[in-house]
Amino acid sequence: MRVELTGRVALVTGASKGIGLAIARALAENGARVLLTSRRREGLEQAAAEITSALAAAGNPDGADAVAVFPAHAGSPEAAEAAAAAAIARFGGLDILVNNAATNPYAGQLIDIDLPRLDKTIEVNLRGPLVWTQAAWRARMREHGGTVLNIASIGGLKYGGPLGAYDMTKAALIFQTRHLATELGPRVRVNAIAPGLVRTDFARYLWSGAGPDADYGWALGRIGQPPDVAAAALFLVSDAAAWITGEVLVVDGGALLGPRSSAPANPARPGQGQPTAG
Ligand SMILES: NC(=O)c1ccc[n+]([C@@H]2O[C@H](COP(=O)([O-])OP(=O)(O)OC[C@H]3O[C@@H](n4cnc5c(N)ncnc54)[C@H](OP(=O)(O)O)[C@@H]3O)[C@@H](O)[C@H]2O)c1
Fold this sequence. Notes:
Blueprint: E1 9-13, H1 18-29, E2 33-37, H2 41-57, E3 67-69, H3 77-91, E4 96-99, H4 115-144, E5 146-151, H5 164-184, E6 188-195, H6 204-207, H7 226-237, E7 248-251
This protein binds NADP nicotinamide-adenine-dinucleotide phosphate.
NADP nicotinamide-adenine-dinucleotide phosphate is lined by residues 13-20, 38-40, 43, 73-75, 100-103, 124, 151, 153, 195, 197-198, 200-203, 277-278.
């Protein structure tokens, strides 16, 4: 997918691997300059090198200047402010914020969760996107406009399963997306993507038991790859989506619809129904 993002500046949290890296790469490949953030500098530098070499291989002479890294904790308001300032100082603006980083330190009954892990989940998955949006708004977007994209989950659109605390933060992030769309328009659009199961480290325990071509029984069969989500992200932050705000785009291969007729058994968890991650 090609969109025109030349002259735009993007900031992506959780950009060192997985979905965040795929989004950062897609933004850079379509002309944006991108500040990659996550906690660990080493992972960020590897990610930046991967994007730079992809741009060079595609014949982009400015590829080396298209990305920069900024280590930052997604739950920290101070880090958010510093990252927004760094994007503006390095690239001269901030037009696109992708709140992608998340954590999932607890699997089990929501009723039994301990408060430290509940607080951590809320800090990174819900408070984080809010404070990074505040930072982008105050530093740049209030005056110059822009677009915010939150990476939620289909877990925020359903009930049940062992990820109640995580899913609860994603449901609230979907609320936050829609609510902020009403507050920040007309100059700033706020949208979300709700991915289903995607082949990243985050969800490894849900897909590692199945082969790469496994059919999970939902409409499109396979699990997602990070570029599947990046393509949707590219659309939502581009001018092609100029009249879309407060929207939550489900990108899950049809998982949320339930099993297709005559579905094969779930290859990852035989006899236990469909994986519900995300
Ligand atoms: N994979 C799935 O099946 C799936 C499904 C639905 C939704 N999602 C959502 O997609 C997003 C990306 O997930 P992913 O699967 O791509 O995960 P991933 O491959 O594990 O990557 C997570 C990224 O977030 C960073 N990160 C983690 N905690 C952080 C923190 N506290 N502060 C800053 N950065 C942090 C990591 O880098 P550092 O370790 O360097 O910080 C890494 O760059 C998340 O919002 C997740 O909830 C994933």
